[in-house]
Structure formats: structure tokens, C-alpha cells
């Protein structure tokens, strides 16, 4: 299942640090690779300096800024992978919806998709036209990284993007988005397929531009029942994984969707991200032995002292085992975490060997 | 494990509708009982009329108002149990903290507990002094119910109350509350034990006043890892269940804590509430056969048409089986649900026989 074409492996060979690729391909590593979700972000003073100067979309759409932000955690914290600085909502934006991203407020889509008529305002775009700035950023990042570590590209899962496109803003329950799916399933599937088609082209474009690995973020997968997750989320993730997994190792992170680990592993994805609400033992049992697990440090544990963080990280690696495993948080790093604590997390993994 | 003293059973005998008690005691029923979390609330125009006239604490602390609101869903929607109209935050309030509950805004505790010095402001109160209005409301409700259906009393789990007492407001992650527990575990355990002692006295008072069943709400249990849930939540829920289960059937609802179903069943609780992110089959497998399961309708499915709601409810009952089961939602009813849809949910269960 988890084989990749020579291209991806060849890319791996140009890298000075290919731990992430090896872990995803099931090859033996001397220690697990480590990176952190939202590692390029607001816990870093260097990031905050840029945030205070440029709007979110300026940072996203200016390749030089996106590149600088992407590289910050590689330089400062020493992670084993860079992840593109961007946002999952660039896809709804490219499809035609207005998206406002105001720092510390959450996203707002003032004209959401809620009925058939609203489909007139959206399209499956030419990603080279609407999202070229992402591909330009990736090319620049790859050049600046110069093979130091691999670059992770990403996209939101269709279900999570639908949540925002229908609800129009963040929500604890996304009940309007769910009501839309339950009451108008034909429209929901039409929208999900449009997002899926856009996402496949978008991720292929990212890989072509140089992304070594891609991750699909289903932040709201855990809001669905197992049956609805299959119908409104996994069905589309499966299409995406099938379309890109031969081109680059692919990771699915569906927060809270522990109940579908077995089904997600069966998509042929190389890695599965998991949160801290499942033990490593149980996650491995459900996911099986032919997929790499990524996670699952409770982000709030980064408020412990550096010495205690190191102890907890070692416990975590012991529980997962060092092979077919990527050390990471179970969700994004929290804004108030001291940089020295993020460093302790990374150092603890590097000290494993 | 799940035996109750004659008192509770005797109470059951005075009831015209004792389906809930029978289901919790593992006795055979002709159909499952049905009620809905937050059934006395903002989807009911009769409730909104009172909300527009009286503040939250006026409604809570005036037995006549609490009684009227508690009875509304029994009269209007026809549920098989009443649940006391109150809020879990009356306990932190009784312990000495200021609590502001502003409708549609969420709770605010302006002076949270974050360091040792803050313990000077809190105490384990005499519940008969500080929470007598709850007991008065229960006596009045029991009188007005006149045995039509049983009355459920409730309290928040110590972990969930700590979340608010430390964070000072609602949060998606409760990272300050978690940081407090991880960094100052001795203080956290001191606070949790104070909440536990208060809660035991509070629930015993509710039962003495007439509550036929009690439910412990751990709304934020699912934010913890399995190990931390044991340390910061279940350890205290266990004390509470042990103290009250001989006096009245006891239900634990720890949202998202699917991973601890086995351990929660082992507390000797009579019922376990579950959300919709686990299949009935898996929930029964994890919880075992000696506990009653309660749930787990996705609250957003109440936006379906009444006919579709009935179809979904029947599917749910078939999956759980009608014995040792209480039909309910997997979380609170959403504010915009039409009353006719709530009625369809209840009717579908009543049509089971």
C-alpha cells in the first residue's frame, strides 16, 4: 500500500535530513523526526514582528514573507521539517468566496454557501491562476532551505473547508454546516466534490513546485459520527490520497476522528496524525502496523518546565516506539508557549538516539 | 455493582412513569425512556419569555421560576424525566467565587483561582446555607410533578468546574486550566478535592430534597489524555459516585471521554452518557453489559424533518437495543431547533413499543 514512486524517494536523496521521509516510507531511522503543528506562528517573536507589519494575506501571498516565516522554526527551533506558511482557507478564497482573516478573531466568510443559488458564486478554479503565489513561495522556500530539511505542503480536508464555507465563521459545533449536509446532502456532496477537485490540483501543484510531503488537515472531522465522517469526509479524503500518494508521502490529520483510524490507514496514506486523547498503544492497535503515526503531545504540556517536557517526550517516544513514528504535538502549538520550551521538545527527540 | 438501596426504588414506586429508573436499574422496560440534555432551554418560546423577564440567577434562585422552567419540557414535549433547571457554576459560586452568567455570552469568573493565595477566597461551604434555593426548588418541583415523571438532579464534574474556576471563562482548549494542573498538581488536587467535597454534599442534598436520579456532567473531560483524565477527573468522579450511588441511580456524562468508558463503568455508576462520535456497538463493547447507556443522537440531526428524525431515532434504538438504554441527545439541544422537531424525537421513542 505505502509505496511511492521513485520521484519522491529521489527528492529524499537530495536532502541532508531525510528522517521525515524515511519515517513515512517505513524505513529504519536512528531516531524519530520531529516537527510541530503551527510551528511557524505566534509563539515566535520573529513571527510576531512580521505579523505586526503585514496583514495575514500579505504574509501569505508574498513569497518572500511566506518563505521567511516558513524558515523561522527551522532556524530557531531546529525542527526536522519545514511546513509551508499559509492557511487552509486560501482554497475557498480561490474558489470565489471572500475570506477575512483577522488575527486573534478567527476567519469570517461574509457570504457563505447555504443554498443552490450560492453555487453561482463559486467555481473549481485554475490553481495555477488563483494559487500561483503558493507555488512561488514553495519554490523560493525550497531554494532557501537548500536541502536542509524537507518541506511539508498542506490543504484542508473538504469537510473542514465546507464547515467554514457554509457556517461562514468558526464555531464550536458547526451546526449550520452540519444541518446543511443533513438536510441537503446532494448540495453538500456537490460542494465537497468541488473542494476535492480543487484540492487535488492544489496539492499536485504544491508537489510539482517542490513540496516533499503533503498533509491533509481535517480539523473538524471529530464533530461527525463515524457514519457521517465516512459520508461527508473520508470519502473525499480517500480521493485526495489516491490522487497524490504516488507523487509524495501523504499524512492525514483528522482531529478527534480516532474511530476511523483503521479506515484512514486503509486509504494508503503514509502517515496518520493523532491527538492526545488516545494512547499510543490504542492508536497503533486501531491503525495497524503499515502506517506511520504522528503526534500526540498535549500542547498544554509545553507549559511544563523544559526538564519535565523532556521527560514527557521520552515517555511518549517509548510508548510509540522510535520506528514508523513522527514526534509532534497532538494539535497546534499554543500562542503563549516560551520558545525555550518548544526547543526543549525538539531537543528531547534529538537526544533519543 | 449496580444495586441501589430500597429508598431509591421506593421513590420509583411512587412514580406513574418509572421508565428512567427501571432502565438505570437494569429492569426490563417496554420501551426506552427518553429525555434531552438542555431540554429546559432556549429552543422553547415559553422559556425565552421567562429569560427576557428575569436574569439567569433570578431564574435559578427563585424556586417558582426554576420549577416552572423545569416542568416546561415535561408539559410541552412529553419527556420521561424532568431535569432541574440550574447551572453547574452554582457550585463555584457557593464556594466563594463571583460568577457572571450573561445569556449568549458564556460564563465569566472575574477572579479565577490561579495560585495558592487565591485559595483564601474559596471554601467548602455549608450547602444548606449557600445552595438551599436549589433544594427548595427541588421540593417544589417534586410537588408540582406529582409523580408524573422522575426528577434528575445534577452537578458538574470537579475537572469541568476547575476549568472554569481557573480559566475564568469558556475556552476551546482550557489551556490555562490545564497548565495549572500540569505545573501545580498539588494545588490542582487541593482544588479538585474541595470541589468534590462540596459536590458530594450538594448531590446528597438534592437527593434528600427529592431528586430521583443524579447526573454528573464532565463537559471538558474529553480535553484530557487518558492518563490525565484518570488523574484530574475520574479519581474525583469515582469519589462522588461512591458517595451517592446507594442513595440514587447515578449517571456520568463525560463528553468525548470514550477512552474511559470501561473505567467509568467500573465506578459502579448506573448510567453512562455518550456522544455521537462513537457507534452504539463500540460504546457497549467498551462499557460492558452491566451499565445503562444514554445518548447519543447528534443534536444537529434535529434540523432534519420530523419524519427523518423519527427514522434516525429508530435506527439509533435498534443499534443500542431497547434494554439498559436511555434515548437522549449526545449533547445539549441546539437553540434553533423547532419545538415540533424535539417532539418528533420524543414521539419516535414512544412509538418504539
Q: Major sheet of chain A: order of its strands?
A: 1-4-5-6-7-8-9
Instruction: State the secondary-structure class of chain A.
Output: alpha/beta
Q: Biggest sheet of chain A, open or closed, and with what strands and sense?
A: 7 strands, parallel
Cα Rg of chain A: 19 Å
- Which CATH architecture of chain A would you pick? Alpha-Beta Barrel
Beta-strand segment tally of chain A: 9
Order of helices and strands of chain A: HHHHHEHEEHHEHHHEHEHEHEHEH
Unreliable spans of chain A: 1-11
Oligomer: homodimer
Task: Write down the CATH class of chain A.
Answer: Alpha Beta
Average pLDDT metric of chain A: 95
Cα end-to-end separation of chain A: 29 Å
CATH topology of chain A: TIM Barrel
The amount of helix of chain A comes to: 40-55%
Architecture overview:
The structure is a homodimer of 353-residue chains. With 353 residues, chain A is α/β, with parallel strands linked by helices. Chain A has one domain: TIM Barrel. In chain A, the strands form two sheets. Chain A has a seven-stranded parallel β-sheet, with helices on both faces. In chain A, strand 2 and strand 3 form a beta hairpin. In chain A, helix 11 packs parallel to helix 12. The longest helix of chain A is centred in the middle third of the chain and has 25 residues. Chains A and B meet through helix 10 and helix 12 of A and helix 10 and helix 12 of B.
